[in-house]
User: What shape does this take?
Amino acid sequence: MDENKYTFENEEYRRAYWNTCSRVMAQAVKRLWPEAKLADGGADDEGWHYDIFTADTVTADDLEKIEAEMKKICKERIQTEDLELSKADALEIMKDEPFKQELINDMPEGAAVKFCRQGDFTDMLEGPHLNSTGRVKANAFRLNDSSASYWKGDAKRESLQRIYGIAFPKKDELEEWLERQEEARRRDHRRIGKEMRLFMTDDLVGRGLPMFLPRGYTIWRELENYIRDKEIRNGYQHVLTPCIGTVNLYKTSGHWDHYKDNMFPEMVVDDESYVLRPMNCPHHMMIYASRPRSYRDLPLRIGEIAHDFRYEASGTLKGIERGRHFCQNDAHLFVTPEQIKDEISNVCDMILDTYKDFGITDYRCVLSLRDPDDKEKYHDDDEMWNKAESALREVLRELNIDFTEEIGEAAFYGPKLDVNVQPAVGAEYTLSTCQLDFCLPAKFDLKYIDADGKEQQPVVLHRAILGSLDRFMAYLIEETMGNFPTWLAPVQAKILTVTDSAAYFAESVRSMLENAGVRAEIDGRNETIGKKIRESTMEKDAYMLVVGERDVENNTVSVRTRAGEDLGAMSPEDFREKIIEEIRTHAR
Ligand code: ZN
Assistant: This one.
């Protein structure tokens, strides 16, 4: 390990740095509150954390005190030293730390227990660390959060305080990180969604179960119409299937074996076991299998905006970005082997066309392959995998699509093409996917009669373009900061009256726009026009039409954009033509 290489490009160094930070923090806590008990901590993916047991909740003031003490410890430049002790000696050293004692007792008999000594402070050691507290830059760390946690993640055990920290080798890197945090906070879809009244959550309904409010559902409906119409133009047929199915259905598909941990537990009704479905493939397979199919029926493209449920750990739930219920823009294409290439090509065209409409330019294509050594996770059939992986690779090459290959990212039943987008803040995620599957058609014994009258097995393509509608909406909110393009804006024209005498005229403008398919509302409250403009701006209405006495006389509306631009007075009819054209072309 090269400790002089002051960069976090090196993962081991980053872990060592954050491990040392966590120990400096633990030492600071013990100096400030000697009666506090240390549980467990260390580097994680986004900094470090340490769980401690204290009588009181850790406050923001406490975090400041701990930070100040940590700075002292860094400046004291305390050398760190590794020790290895027997379990008996380890228990003696940790005699005042019941949580550490429990960890030691959990270790196998005869195990050597590793410690790190840091001056008068000794902590159990896991992973690499720096050789002196002086190597932690005293001006480049921050304790950024604290929350309640349970010892060993068990709600029946002691309640602890988890403190989170982040550190960098340079001060300006910390500042950059803080700026990114602030940007993420400004764009956070949960905050914007609440301000714009798009969706809500309530623990009484259930964690991870967001509910869309009228304005949010308006956007949802536009997205649904957009993608369904595009699919219809591309030869898709849509179905509606229940979001529950028997366990046997998922045993047949293989999901029960490979996907059970992500599903809600089974429920028994009339001696039959059911599950909430995590995905829709089995239902669509059954629709295909419900009647004899000929090669003339293929390709058969079955689409559904389908409700699914997956178990997600409560710590990973995030607004509508990651919930336990979501809606997939799903489809299954049943094709002959000869049709694979054209169908994948058509899916790629639809994806790229959609991205153009939404202005998505920062994306990359990934060919996700299985990990051949992981027999647990993937359907076990080497020949099938080799055939599917090379078929997909070949098609991508022929289509001249740039892609990288990633091992171990495939679905359990086959390889896939994922299109990953990079949001304005946060990590990239898979938006669209197209998966090649020789496995489910065999499990469901799907057949078609070929031109020679022989029975053949179709190939299935699973594909999603907008992915989960919920998550896509979260993405759009964060990209646009709620300033949706006019065609998606929940309110496309807000008519603001200056005086009560404009009320009748305002209503005539509203109903004219509504008849033309424009979502228009009136703010006729007895408030100042300044206040009405401010509120409309905050709710991100696409246009404001101010109507005062003079507008009534001249048959005009004074048009403003939410960005504050004054487009001047125009006739309501001219405004109608302008906004209809904008909506029709999906202008951004
Ligand atoms: Zn599927």
Q: What stands out?
A: Residues 192 and 482 are 7 Å apart (CA to CA). Residues 1-6 have pLDDT under 50 and may be disordered. Residues 279, 281, 332, 462 surround zinc ion (CB under 6 Å). The longest strand covers residues 325-335.
